[in-house]
Design a protein that fits this description.
77% of the residues lie in helices and 0% in strands. The chain has 102 residues and is mainly alpha-helical. It has one domain.
Length: 102
Amino acid sequence: MVMGRASAQYDIEKKSLLVAYLLWGFLGYVGAHRFYLGRPFSGFVMLALSGVVLLLTFMSFGFLSFLWVIVAIWWFIDALLIPGIAANRNSRIADRVFGSRR
C-alpha cells in the first residue's frame, strides 16, 4: 500500500524528456527547460544572458547581434545534456519519494 502511494507520487513528480525537449525547442533560449528540470540558477543565467543580448542588439542596431552565438551554442549543447539532467533529477525525486536507495 505504501509502495503504491510512493510510486504514484513519483509518477506525478518525475520529469518527462518529451516536455523538456518541447520547452528546449520553443523556449530554450530563455532557459525554460532548465527551470523545468530543477536547475533554476542556470535557467536564470540563460534568461538573463538572453535578455542582455537582446537589449544590446536593439541598442546597437544589430551591430552586436553576433553575441547571440553564445546563447545558441549553450542552447545546442543543452540538447545533448537534457537526458542526463532529467535522469539525475528523476533519481533525486526517487530517492526522496522512496527513501535513500544507498
